[in-house]
Write a structure and sequence with these properties.
Helix content: 40-55%
CATH superfamily: Vaccinia Virus protein VP39
Strand content: 15-25%
Radius of gyration: 18 Å
Oligomer: single chain
CATH architecture: 3-Layer(aba) Sandwich
Largest sheet: 7 strands, mixed
Order of helices and strands: HEHEHEEHEHHHEHHHE
Distance between the termini: 33 Å
Length: about 270
């Protein structure tokens, strides 16, 4: 595991939902609206996590079936509890598991907020292309980390780095510099796809500071993993700095935006 990934924590599905799920679900819905695919298709959801995109596919796209794959047993368990639908098959595995799927066996292969965590992204996209039948769709979306597209993450890491300069190397914008319009289009082309890329934006509004801070204390995800690795005194210094520096609305709420890049291609 590279040093920058040592705080990644991907098992506590309920904790991850509190940290990221409430922001990933609106983006999943917008992504499917953009794809505009008809009903009755067979889908692959690679890196399904706690099921935000899987659930959106079931709700919006009327699929014949969805194969949802993720390497985290805890995330799969959370997704299964939330989605009792006979059209879904959850499978524990990673991008390498796609090699077991037949060629041209799916109508659409998608990855929501997961491609950047796959070590060999081009190989994963090639496998997604392989299992999609001609005329089908390969598509994915990731947060715009280099462009500050996750405002609350950027605020957290800016405060952390001010107190601990070594934290700069853990930030998502340094770990995933390719998560730009140009970088993601290049990945898709390297996989033999002709991509279309758009930006998808959505607000993230926290009711108050406690609503902002609490998910970082649950340990699920890189920033919460780092937060909980700190000593109690260091964690309190980080909490205090964030409390002092975050922008507040008149009612005490904290409004920070989110932006993702979405990519689609026809096979």
């Amino acid at each position: 595991m590279p040093p920058s990934a040592r705080h990644d924590a991907w098992q506590a599905g309920d904790s991850y939902e509190a940290y990221m799920g409430r922001w990933s679900r609106p983006i999943a819905a917008r992504f499917l609206d953009w794809l505009g695919l008809p009903g009755g298709l067979d889908w692959l959801d690679l890196g399904c996590g706690t099921g935000a995109l899987t659930q959106a596919i079931l709700r919006q796209s009327d699929p014949a079936g969805v194969l949802a794959i993720d390497p985290s047993e805890g995330f799969i368990a959370t997704a299964r509890r939330a989605l009792d639908d006979p059209r879904v098959e959850f499978r524990l595995g990673d991008a390498a598991a796609l090699a077991t799927l037949p060629e041209a066996s799916r109508d659409a292969a998608v990855a929501g907020l997961s491609l950047n965590f796959i070590p060999d992204r081009v190989a994963a996209l090639r496998e997604m292309r392989r299992i999609v039948q001609p005329g089908g769709t390969v598509a994915f979306y990731v947060w715009d980390y280099p462009g500050g597209g996750m405002g609350f993450m950027r605020a957290f890491w800016d405060a952390a780095a001010a107190l601990d300069p070594a934290a700069r190397d853990l930030t998502e914008n340094r770990r995933f510099p390719f998560c730009t319009r140009e970088g993601l289009a290049a990945l898709a082309r390297d996989a033999g796809l002709e991509p279309e890329v758009i930006a998808m934006e959505s607000p993230s509004v926290f009711r108050n500071f406690d609503d902002f801070w609490h998910p970082f204390t649950l340990g699920a995800g890189p920033a919460p993993g780092y937060c909980m690795s700190l000593s109690p005194d260091a964690r309190e210094r980080l909490r205090a700095r964030l409390s002092e520096t975050l922008p507040r609305q008149a009612d005490g709420s904290i409004a920070l935006g989110t932006r993702a890049w979405a990519v689609r291609a026809r096979v």
